[in-house]
Write a structure and sequence with these properties.
Oligomer: single chain
Distance between the termini: 7 Å
Largest sheet: 2 strands, antiparallel
Helix content: 40-55%
Strand order of the largest sheet: 1-2
Order of helices and strands: HHHHHEEHHHH
Shape: globular
């Protein structure tokens, strides 16, 4: 996927957010996102979307993947998954707000093509509120607006089996909350197929 300017990514994110998310507190949460580094942060230190604006771009990618997944005939008719556009936007756009204000620009030494060490820019991870991953996003969102149980579970378990949790607990959550399964699928699709 082609990298875009952080300002362009921010504009698209805000358009999707304001079109779909109308519940009480949504405006205050968006204001918070505009004041913190959400729109300039990377999505990771070295892997997917590790560039300025990567976190917001990843969130948009997950939104598009989840929207497409939930629109499938099989998903709607056989699995009976039917979630509002607001719920879809909330869980996908906000699942990784736990990554705000945790990436710090730094340098690391890397050998170049000639075998000479040189300093290259990188990001390092420093979490001032180590509250977990999905659960931290739920905690942060809940400070601004109320989440349904399906929404909270989808955000909490969006890493699916790729996290460090007990696989029996993850499996139970994905079975009981199908939106969590759909969200984990969308997150993996965006991470592994759309992003560097």
């Amino acid at each position: 996927m082609e990298k875009r300017a952080a300002s362009e990514i921010k504009k698209e994110f805000i358009e999707i957010y304001e079109k779909n998310i109308k519940r009480d507190g949504a405006d205050k949460l968006l204001d918070y996102l505009c004041r913190c580094d959400f729109f300039t942060a990377p999505a990771s230190t070295r892997f997917h979307s590790c560039y300025e604006g990567g976190l917001a771009q990843h969130s948009i990618n997950v939104y598009n993947c989840l929207t497409d997944y939930l629109a499938r005939e099989r998903v709607k008719e056989l699995y009976k998954l039917n979630f509002s556009e607001e719920t879809t936007a909330i869980v996908s756009l906000l699942h990784d707000i736990c990554k705000t204000d945790v990436y710090i620009k730094d340098f690391r030494n890397v050998k170049n093509d000639q075998g000479v060490w040189e300093k290259v820019p990188c990001y390092k991870f420093e979490d001032k509120l180590p509250y977990g991953h999905g659960e931290k996003s739920v905690y942060m969102i809940s400070g601004f607006m109320r989440l349904s149980r399906d929404e909270a579970m989808a955000i909490r378990w969006h890493m699916g089996f790729s996290g460090s949790e007990d696989s029996n607990i993850v499996g139970s959550a994905l079975e009981k909350y199908p939106l969590a399964f759909a969200m984990a699928t969308a997150d993996m699709e965006a991470t592994y197929f759309l992003e560097e």
